[in-house]
């Protein structure tokens, strides 16, 4: 029953490891029943990461995505009797032209989902490494409070433009901040923007992923923090599980700690994507073949996955 809606592989992501096939096999071996393949989208040359230009051009990134899609569909057929695989992408919001790239992919490929995410503020990566984060922060007044505000404003622009079915690592901005585990309520101005975004997501029916990658990076809670989950729950918002794996070692990693966050937040049930059926209705007109299925946390805990 455990599932993940966010994953990457070294075959199609430069900062990950293992082939896509190996990642899928790891999910099967861990006892996952639903696993979503969501490689990164192509980017313009201006948004390449350091040294990326040594290996890629914008054209080769598009070719890489096309190769990914074909391999993902192949694996979906190969493992159809062992695991439910859904194919999509992580749609990073960097600048207005990101909208064009994402719309182009949605028109060219029949996908089951996409994740809406923000990895850049002022078009500078905020999760690459601390020096690059500090460079993004220095564009404002060189404080975490200011860049947090700018992050949630960028996130709102992404949400308004895309209405992503799943919102990825909602509070990623805290990764390289001076105090990544502090309460968001420390800064009322930031908290207000955060709540504004949660209300928007809840209003259009978006799902927040409970993303375990923060835990392997030294933080004490999943993305988003428990206090954020409590607010989204009060708004009637829905949650799903993601490991944001970047290779075999990350598949299902720290899900026990995510479960602890779920309980502390008072979340009674989570949801996962499922094929449309008599009981599962399409969640979005853009993705007519899939919908959300709800499972109680109590039932989730009974799965053999937790014994592995």
TrEMBL record:
Coiled-coil residues: none
Keywords annotated in UniProt: Amino-acid biosynthesis, Histidine biosynthesis, Hydrolase
Domain PHP: start-end pairs: 5-213
Residue spans crossing the bilayer: none
Catalytic activity: L-histidinol phosphate + H2O = L-histidinol + phosphate
GO biological process, one term: L-histidine biosynthetic process
Gene Ontology molecular function, alphabetical: histidinol-phosphatase activity
Pathway: Amino-acid biosynthesis; L-histidine biosynthesis; L-histidine from 5-phospho-alpha-D-ribose 1-diphosphate: step 8/9
Origin superkingdom: Eukaryota
Range of residues in the leader sequence: none
One Gene Ontology CC term in the entry: cytoplasm
Broad EC category: hydrolase
One Pfam entry name: PHP
EC number: 3.1.3.15
Family: Belongs to the PHP hydrolase family. HisK subfamily.
NCBIfam families documented for this protein: hisJ_fam (TIGR01856)
Protein name: Histidinol-phosphatase
Taxonomy of the source species: Eukaryota, Fungi, Dikarya, Ascomycota, Pezizomycotina
């Amino acid at each position: 029953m455990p599932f993940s809606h966010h994953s990457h592989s070294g075959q199609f992501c430069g900062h990950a490891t293992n082939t896509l096939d190996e990642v899928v096999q790891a999910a099967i071996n861990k006892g996952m029943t639903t696993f979503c393949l969501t490689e990164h989208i192509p980017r313009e040359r201006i948004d390449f990461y350091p040294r990326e230009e040594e290996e890629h051009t914008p054209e080769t990134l598009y070719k890489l995505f096309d190769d990914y899609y074909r391999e993902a569909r192949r694996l979906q057929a190969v493992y159809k009797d062992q695991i439910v695989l859904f194919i999509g992408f992580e749609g990073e919001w960097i600048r207005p032209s990101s909208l064009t790239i994402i719309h182009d992919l949605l028109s060219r490929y029949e996908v089951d989902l996409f994740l809406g995410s923000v990895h850049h503020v002022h078009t500078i990566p905020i999760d690459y490494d601390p020096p690059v984060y500090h460079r993004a922060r220095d564009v404002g007044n060189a404080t975490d409070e200011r860049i947090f505000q700018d992050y949630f404003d960028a996130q709102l622009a992404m949400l308004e433009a895309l209405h992503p079915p799943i919102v990825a690592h909602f509070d990623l901005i805290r990764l390289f901040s001076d105090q990544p585990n502090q309460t968001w309520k420390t800064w009322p101005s930031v908290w207000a923007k955060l709540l504004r975004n949660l209300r928007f997501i809840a209003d259009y029916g978006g799902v927040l992923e409970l993303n375990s990658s923060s835990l392997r990076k030294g933080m004490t809670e999943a993305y988003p923090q428990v206090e954020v989950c409590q607010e989204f729950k009060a708004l009637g918002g829905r949650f799903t599980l993601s490991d944001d794996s970047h290779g075999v070692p990350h598949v299902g990693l720290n899900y026990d700690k995510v479960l602890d966050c779920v309980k502390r937040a008072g979340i009674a049930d989570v949801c996962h994507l499922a094929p449309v059926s008599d009981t599962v209705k399409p969640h979005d007109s853009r993705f007519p073949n899939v919908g959300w299925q709800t499972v109680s946390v109590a039932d989730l805990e009974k799965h053999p996955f937790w014994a592995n």
